[in-house]
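User: Predict the structure for this protein chain, please.
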Amino acid sequence: MTTEPHRVRTRFAPSPTGFIHLGNIRSALYPWAFARHHGGDFILRIEDTDTERSSEEAVQVILQAMDWLGLDYDEGPFYQMQRMPRYREVLDQLRAAGWVYPCYMSTAELDALRERQTAAKQKPRYDGTWRPEPGKVLPPIPKGVQPVWRFKTPTTGVVGWHDFVKGRVDIRNEELDDLVVARPDGTPTYNFCVVVDDMDMRITDVIRGDDHVNNTPRQLHIFHALGAQPPRYAHLPTVLNEQGEKLSKRNGAKSVLQYRDEGYLPDAVVNYLARLGWSHGDAEIFSRAQFLEWFDLDHLGSSPAQFDEAKLRWVNAHYIKHTPPDQLAALVRPLLERDGITAQSPDLQAVCALLHDRAQTLPELAQQTLLFYRPTQPDASALEQHLSAQAKPALIDLRQQLADLPEWTREAIAAAFKAVLKQHGLKMPQLAMPVRLMLTGREQTPAVDAVLALLGREVVLQRLAPFLD
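Assistant: Here is the predicted structure, written as structure tokens:
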């Protein structure tokens, strides 16, 4: 692959081993935003070398989640299992250059070595038994044993990098052992594949979770052995759940697609997720365009961010409130049709315009709209409380005034209410509350004149009749 000099290229490289949660997808959001901010390229790479746990179903979940959130990629998806010939080619280059060597230490021998080291209060690690050195005599090669291939990590000096989150990070090479880069069957290991991929794909910036920090020095050594320029790194702190534990499948994390199914808007999730580890001053709510304009690596948080579903619901409510009614209607209609409601009259777009500030999720909004499409019998005790002997004559007069209105508008309906209130010496709640109950079965609705205007004269008179005749 070729690319322009200095052109930003980022990547998202998930493993398809289960559902993808918000903590995972943040590692897609930030590199996507960084690439878009700089007019660069965003690459999707599927790291599917764990053949026992990887599945096509999990791949589809990743693709659907990214599509729902609008995280479009410029290249890919690339699959590591399809790149095995390339990995073996690069491994041969390292063998020829003397950077890797065969190691015949069995798993049982390695476990025993680590037990001895632990007992001696030493750091458990491979001790270099099979590492070739000038003048060193290696053990006899055991018969019938296929070796792993290990990378010859430098034994002195320091390997380090500037991290956009953690600052300068330096690791003494003596703290590292010789990494296995290929298994006995010749299959290359994760850290080796990552380096070859990042090198071939010209990745300039790696933005990933800080669970990869320990991999970085090993990957840097492989880059240097290949004579390739390493990318820049930003290691994001862990996302915690509401109990302060790492957000994970084990600790109650939900699939990204579950938020879609629960009625969250993709722009709301992107907005909330963007603030879960990055900030632009005190801005809490911002458009996708503003996010891409503002995003940089200098304002990534260095402390773990804590997921708060109540805050996400608040952000979602804001986005529902500010979504055009025609778009809301298109999102709500399938939820109603699923329950057998056609929502033909009144117009669903007008209903959503009236109710959009009363719901935090789309199913809640759909539930709110039912007062227009599915009349509910009011609670008997509530109706008895509000349909008093004093209120009933006023309600009968109100029904007559509504029936006689020359035009059915919100303004005309409001004027009818005012006239009846004045005539009977009542306050608005004494009239509005029983009207709400009789028409919708609910004590809480938007302004009663707005509700009546949308319901229409015929429906209003029809619903009032059983209570006032």
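The longest strand covers residues 41-46.
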